[in-house]
Amino acid sequence: MVACGGVLMAGQAPARPVVVTVGNAVRWRGETYLVTALQGGSVHLLSQDADGEDAVVLLDSLSRSLGFAVLDTPRPDDTITDVPAVAVRQSLGGAAVLEGLSDKAREMAEFWLDHVLEVHTGLPGFATPSTEPRPCYDLERTTLRQRYETKAAELCAAHHRVSAATVERKRLAWLAHGVWGLVDKRRVRGPSTHGRVDERVVKLLWKVHQRHRKRSVGTRSRLFELLRRACVRKFKKKGEQLMPSRATFYRLLDRLGILCGRETGRQGTGSHRPEPPFTLAMATTPGEQVQIDTTPLDVLGVDETGRVVSLELTAAIDVVSRSILAAVIRPKSIGTKAGSHSRRRGGRATKAVDALLLLAEMCTPQPMRPHWSPRAGAKGSNLPYAQLVEADERMEGAAARPVIIPEMIVMDNGKVFAGRAFMDACAQLGICVRPACYNSPTHKAIIERTFGSIKTLFSQFLPGYTGKDLQHRGKDVAGERLWRVDQINDFLQQWIAVGWQQRPHEELRNPFLPSMPPRTPNQMFAAHVASSGYVPVRLSAEDRLRLLPTAWVTVTDKGIRLDNRTYDSRAISPYRNARSGWPGKGQRWPVRYHPYQPEKVWLEDHRNGTWAEADFVYQRLIGDEWSEHIWDQATAAHLNKGGSTRDEAAIARVVCSLLERAGRGPSRTAAPQPAPVDRGMVVGPQPIEDPYRNIPAPDYQHITSLPSMDVDLRQLCLPPARFPRPEGLSQPGADGQPDGARGPQAGI
Q1: Residue 286: exposed, middle, or buried by beta-carbon count in 10 A (0-12, 13-18, 19+)?
Q2: For 318, which of 164, 199, 452, 513 is 20 to 30 Å away at the CA?
Q3: Where is the region Disordered (predicted)?
Q4: Closest CA to 206 of 193, 190, 188
Q5: Quick one: which H or E segment has residue 541?
Q6: Confidence band (pLDDT; 50, 70, 90) for 263?
Q7: Bridge partners of 20?
Q8: How far, in Å, CA of 295 to CA of 315, rounded?
Q9: Which of 634, 630, 594 is nearest to 309 (CA)?
């Protein structure tokens, strides 16, 4: 069986490949051929025309040629215009669901089945194919309403009190649920799990149990007392009457599966254990089932701003070959708040865009990097390198990691994968998504076990390994020389190509020859390529843009405002203050943005399928690569200084300073500030009261200088003014002073 991809038109999403198997009739180059053999990436075609010639063609070329079609495989867009009555009646089976019912219930279902079939098709269920319908049930002469009334009249004549509405209800139930819709549900109703206890009390019991699940483990008597109090508060005087006895309450807990006291441990109530029967995830072809999840990596690293942060790993693994299709590492840290009612800024974790980037990496070969080991290349690995390069030229010089397009993805119910962005991206790529049950990691046990192997084979050999809990953590992990996040991500990609894809896996054994040694994921992928072929899916630039998150914003005269940033360019001028044409959106346009490359945004015009690019208006102040995380940290630092989120230029300068500080590395001269010591209550004699405690400390930064003198400094040295000399005083000397002034102190 081979999956053949269709030809993609501009602006369309990649279609789900058509399945081709040996024996299919296909149309190629205007002639009909029969698929006789599949060998690697080649297809052997046997011509069905008298003068035709056989051909051997590459599967990729065959699927991309114009006019190619599989003649005996129905497509999803084919519509059935005329269905014979025999074909309709052949699909009306399903009477096996009546097995196990009582004789009375089975007789009533079979009774109604014959009458419903006669109303719907004109013939009862026991009629032979050559039987002609009665005139009153002829589909060409009577309407559905007339057949309802005719059937009701016949049943009333046979002493069955039935109306036309009842016949209509039975027919609609049969169309919706098959034969099971005709079964009287009162005859299959089983005993209640809560016995004779009032249903309102049972609902209240579940609420009380859920409200106290995070508290310390208690006994059944505590839950009984909590339920009694809740019943009294809700039902007032009837609360004591509705409460069951203590013995009935304990039996009710057993039937409902609520565990208390010694029946459960600290690790939980056993909800993570799957219900029997226990079955493994089964798949037969690559991409049939891919599991994806996120987990802590148990390693510390340094982010873009130079801070020590924890790391998270998001990965996707193929169930058949156990190949890690894509993996990405993202920091995880909490943010800071400028006030008690303000927004927390500067925090980060795995986002929905990381899951979208993971989907794009699955469709793209991993390129080799210059500093990687030669063993990480696909050319010298167990992959069928020549066949892969022949089918997809992008595999030339790629790493030893296979490219597998998922058909179905099994995920958990986290907001990273359960969001609309991830669902829309999977629908665009034609991928079916199946969420696992809540609190059931065993439903995706393969990816969970793979995470444990990554932590054992990769994480614990890195500096900054923290262990799985506090008991396994070192004393000074944060003080080690840590790698940057991008460096750890580079190490992981190289380790996947060398240490995982080329390492034998115990689950990859030949079921017919169990004595043979286990195979590697690359060997298993090569074996499936030889039997089912390989068809690449190429994502265009528009397809990659559609994988990005979408924000609906209004284009004003100042440009596009997104996350306290303004984007503008001449390309978005036609969309300023214009209506988008989307129902219910008004003047809001769909804008695609990249949280890790926020220098640009892209506005999508659905009317003509074009994209308008806009740049951040203050990018010149930063002049380097940055991300939304750095912007959030710069915004938090700017708000702590009393700034505003509207001051984009100031925040851009803070972003530039953060990047420069991160480039210099952590400071080794600044001594850490000691934490304040809590010394408890004051004992002993009271300390002497400080006489200056009520005097405020002077603010030297705001002390003003004394005012300047309004007299010229040279006038201070002038002689005194001359007045008429009184009699008896001597004449002044040559120096201008009186003779009596000269004395022992005249020279001072």
Answers
A1: buried
A2: 513
A3: 718-748
A4: 193
A5: helix 541-546
A6: low
A7: 2
A8: 9
A9: 630
Q: Are the CB atoms for 379 and 667 separated by under 8 Å?
A: no
Rounded distance, CA 632 to CA 651, Å?
Answer: 9
Six token digits for residue 696: 């405020």
> How far is it, in rounded angstroms, from Cα 132 to Cα 148?
19
**β-bridge pairing 31-39 and 25-28:** antiparallel
> How many other CB atoms sit within 10 Å of the CB of residue 12?
14
Asked if 354 and 458 sit in the same domain, the reply is: yes
Q: What is the dihedral of CA 30, 35, 37, 38, to 10 degrees?
A: 70
Residue closest to 654 by CA, chosen among 621, 679, 684? 621
Its domain, for residue 474, covers: 290-332+347-532
State pLDDT tens for residues 403-421: 988 989 988 877 778 778 8
Backbone angles phi, psi at 543, to 5 degrees: -65, -40
Alpha carbon distance 646, 639 (integer Å): 11
Separation between Cα atoms, residue 5 and residue 12, nearest integer Å: 13
Collapse the DSSP code of 105 into the 3-class scheme (helix H, G, I; strand E, B; otherwise coil) and give the result: helix
pLDDT of residue 269: 44
CA angle 398, 401, 406 (to 5 degrees): 120
Q: Is residue 88 part of a domain?
A: no
Q: Where a domain ends, among 162, 187, 212?
A: 187
Q: Tokens in use for 724?
A: 């008429």
At residue 706, the 3 state secondary structure works out as: coil
- The DSSP bridge pattern shows strands 610-616 and 600-605 to be antiparallel
Same domain, 124 and 57: no
The token duo for 243 is: 């409460």
What's the number of CA atoms in the CB half-sphere (13 Å) around residue 440? Answer: 13
Q: Count of domains in the chain?
A: 5
User: Same domain for 48 and 181?
Assistant: no
Name the pairing type of β-strands 408-411 and 432-435. Answer: parallel
Q: Are residues 107 and 51 in the same domain?
A: no
Cα(705)–Cα(261) distance, rounded to whole angstroms?
76
Please give, one letter per residue, the 3-state secondary structure of 477-540: CCCCCCCEHHHHHHHHHHHHHHHHCCCCCCCCCCCCCCCCCCCCHHHHHHHHHHHHCCCCCCCC
Cβ 348 vs Cβ 333: under 8 Å: yes
**Beta carbons within 10 angstroms of residue 318's beta carbon:** 26
Whether residue 149 sits in one domain with residue 241: no
The rounded distance, in Å, linking the Cα atoms of 20 and 38 is 10
If you average pLDDT over residues 223-235, what whole number do you get?
A: 89
CB 406 within 8 A of CB 287: yes
Structure tokens at 504: 């034998």
- Which range of 62-66, 148-152, 534-538, 641-645 scores highest in mean pLDDT? It is 148-152
Nearest 10 degrees: CA dihedral of 323, 326, 331, 337?
-120
Phi, psi (deg, nearest 5) at residue 377:
-80, 150
Is 599 or 195 the better-scoring residue by pLDDT?
599
Highest mean pLDDT among 5-14, 249-258, 674-683: 249-258
* 540 within some domain: no
Residue where one domain finishes, among candidates 154, 187, 220: 187
Q: What is the pLDDT of residue 261?
A: 55
Q: Report yes or no: 529 and 369 within 8 Å, Cβ to Cβ.
A: no
302 is written with which tokens?
């340094």
The pLDDT value given to residue 291: 92
Q: How many CB atoms lie within 10 A of CB 219?
A: 11
Report the SS3 class of residue 223.
helix
What pLDDT shows up at residue 675? 45
Based on the domain organization, do 180 and 214 belong to the same domain?
A: no
Max CA pair span of the chain: 166
Query: How much is the average pLDDT of 612-631?
Result: 86
Q: How far is CA 481 from CA 431, 473, 495, 660, in A?
A: 42, 16, 21, 20
Cα–Cα nearest to 425, from 291, 283, 550, 563 = 550
The length of the chain is 748
